[in-house]
Amino acid sequence: MKLDPPEKVSQEQITLDVREIEPLLQAPPMDLKPWPEAMITLKDGRVLYIREARLDDVPLLLEYMKKVMDCDHDFYDIVGARVYAEILGWQRKRVKDPFTLIGLFDGMLAGFANGRVMNEDIAISLHTMTFARGGRIGYAMYYAKSFYALETLGCKEWWSTFESYNGWRMAGLEMAQPTYPWPEYQHELGGARVYYVTKRHWNTSLKNFTRQMIGADFNFNVTDEVRKRNEVFRVPDQVTL
User: Fold this and answer.
1) pTM of the predicted model, to two decimals?
2) Which CATH number fits domain 37-154+214-229: 3.60.21.10, 3.40.50.2000, 3.40.630.30, 3.30.160.40?
3) Given 89, 162, 183, 214, which residue has the most CB atoms within 10 angstroms?
């Protein structure tokens, strides 16, 4: 769009340094506390190690998500596409205050969970995925990011929506999450219903969720042995979902 200036100007063209534009496109980050890393013994005896994803993990994560996008069942294609964009948005600094957790068995990617912080009071769940069967990995990953939002960051509410039936059953139904009135409240993922957990609901009902569903709690005193076993990050050769 162009309009003639209403006054004489001495310079009709202005050159901008992209470093001057970037602050307008990139949301100023909040000072978020890091996820402290944790381990949990699953029902099948395996020890799941959960840490924050790092930017040097991104190439392998994106490579794997491309394969997930080709799975045309149980909504993996749309979830894979959205997760790919969210990971890339984090790398390119086009997502406000994202957090990404990965669950590992001996360095192998087994679970993924991400979200972002809207403001000091509300954190938003984006996606939870599992890439290994058994042990209720999805429960552990979803609980981990819920714990991070409500305990580590001290947010007052945790907002989710669900694209798949299994995701809704695991977190929406089994956590007994209510919904806000729709369409007054819409989740950013496609404008779907907002399911939410308040801090009160968390404190009174959900803090023991992993104990109920998995039979164990998170251990934030990660052993050197577990940390050592998970030093080298890998992704599966094949997608078996």
Assistant:
1) 0.94
2) 3.40.630.30
3) 162
